[in-house]
Specification:
364 residues; alpha+beta; 5-stranded mixed sheet; 12 strands; 34% helix
Length: 364
């Protein structure tokens, strides 16, 4: 009987599981045998693999790129880099795919749009523009609320890279960007101990030391590329990094020469140039250091912040009579501002705007 059942299993149920095969043997052929026995026979004749025998998914190795600057992997590693001597922080790592060469290290408070702006700008100033960056799917790089090509085009970081002609590629898994993941593990071992020996306990001191560490690290671990060609490109004449690597948003100017951004009311200087901007859009640029500039086309506009709903003590409050001679529209503006204060609920600053909490950790 065993031989007959095995022949049925091999011919008809070779890809069935033991329990399912047992059910079909009863229904179709009238053989009543326990699933445990069927499983044993199937394992003996390699018709079924145990959980331990089943092969896990194998990730095929991806060969290195041929040239330096062809692909640069980027990632942020949150860790206690100063052990118990300082606060927990993040290390932004830029590593070349062709050579495993560390290109840029920057200690920051967290992975954010503004910290990546600072680090990427530093990278380009040192090495030039690579062909592509390879990252994970952090919201800085990928907007998960969009679909298709809009995913990479809807983030501020993606917009900045397009302006400097650098392609942004997002990995589907951590294994795909194994080069930078393995580098993070090495850094969490070697860099931490090197800083311990030097008693480095602050972000500022660490960012000064990393230049020395990168030089020593690359001397030990850098690989020889297949091609000696360097794919990094110099900046074009029209590319201004300071203006590109910042948070940009368009705002419509009201008839009172005002507009709102992030719970703040902005008032443009009342001159002939700005009077023609009523109902037109201006570009607001917020920089990593927290400063804000307003542009219309290529012209920089002067402005004042009349009030700040979140940080009123930080706003330069002015008396109405003090400015009325300079701006005849101020009465209307202040009336509008007071009405808006009463209407708007007391809520926190928008989560979509760039965070400024990282500024105390930055070194530009």
């Amino acid at each position: 009987m065993k031989g007959e059942i095995l022949e049925l299993l091999i011919n008809n149920y070779h890809d069935f599981g033991p329990t399912f095969a047992t059910e079909k043997l009863v229904e179709q052929h009238g053989y009543i045998i326990s699933a445990k026995t069927i499983r044993k026979w199937m394992i003996e004749h390699n018709l079924w693999l145990t959980r331990n025998q089943k092969l896990k998914r194998a990730y095929q190795p991806r060969y290195r790129r041929n040239c330096v600057g062809e692909l640069v992997q980027i990632d942020g590693s949150i860790h206690r880099w100063f052990e118990d001597r300082g606060p927990k922080c993040t290390l932004l790592v830029f590593i070349d795919d062709a050579t495993s060469k560390l290109m840029e290290l920057k200690f920051v408070a967290s992975e954010s749009m503004q910290t990546y702006f600072i680090s990427t700008k530093s990278y380009i100033n040192k090495h030039g523009r690579p062909l592509a960056f390879y990252s994970d799917q952090l919201s800085v790089f990928r907007n998960h609320g969009c679909k298709g090509q809009e995913i990479l085009q809807s983030t501020q970081f993606g917009r900045a890279l397009r302006e400097v002609d650098i392609q942004l590629i997002c990995a589907n898994s951590s294994q795909a960007k194994g080069r930078v993941e393995r580098a993070n593990k090495t850094l969490q071992d070697r860099l931490i101990k090197e800083m311990r020996l030097r008693n480095i306990s602050t972000v500022e001191a660490a960012n000064i030391y990393v230049a020395e560490f990168i030089k020593d690290f690359n001397k030990r671990f850098e690989k020889k590329p297949i091609s000696s060609e360097d794919k990094h490109r110099p900046l074009a004449n029209h590319m201004e990094l300071d203006k590109i690597f910042c948070y940009k948003t368009d705002r419509t100017v009201s008839k009172n020469l005002t507009f709102q951004h992030n719970r703040q009311l902005f008032l443009l200087e009342d001159i002939q140039q700005t009077r023609v901007l009523r109902r037109k859009q201006v570009e607001l640029c917020e920089y990593p250091d927290g400063s804000i500039k307003i542009f219309y086309q290529e012209n920089k506009l002067k402005y004042k912040i009349l009030y700040d709903r979140v940080e009123p003590e930080a706003t330069n409050q002015v008396a109405q009579g003090q400015i009325v001679l300079e701006n005849k529209y101020l009465s209307d503006v202040l009336e509008y501002a007071n009405n808006r204060k009463k209407e708007l609920p007391k809520i926190k600053r928008s989560s979509h705007a760039p965070s400024r909490t990282h500024l105390k950790y930055m070194t530009v």
